[in-house]
Amino acid sequence: MIKVKVYGNTGFEVVNHGDEIVCAGISALTITAVNFIQDKLGAEVDCHHNPEGGLIRFKLLDENPQAKLILENLVYGLELIKETYPKEIKIRRFDNYD
């Protein structure tokens, strides 16, 4: 099962072990969102990615509204995947990283 933690609109953590097609979809969404926020928006972030361990941890460190919108879009995409593969993904929401 793939486990996702969403921290408000400032970050997320994904442990990506599960069905290959679901893993691929989630990896594509998360990596695209992270790369766009870092490379195109230049937002200040803290990001840890371990592909072998299937882990990505991301935290937005500034108040970039465009980056927050991208994170909302990411969560929307994850929710859509969950609708199709409810046994493959668990999403937990927290107010923030604290």
- Give the overall form: globular
| Number of distinct beta strands | 5
| Count of alpha and pi helical runs | 2
Q: Largest sheet, described in full? A: 5 strands, mixed
Strand content: 25-35%
Radius of gyration: 12 Å
Fraction of residues in H or I helices: 40-55%
Strand order of the largest sheet: 3-4-2-1-5
Write the element-wise H/E pattern from the N-terminal end onward: EEHEEHE
The helix/strand class is alpha+beta
Query: What oligomeric state is this?
Result: single chain
Mean pLDDT: 93
Q: Report how far the terminal alpha carbons are from each other.
A: 25 Å
In terms of per-residue confidence, which ranges show pLDDT below 50 for 5 or more consecutive residues?
A: none
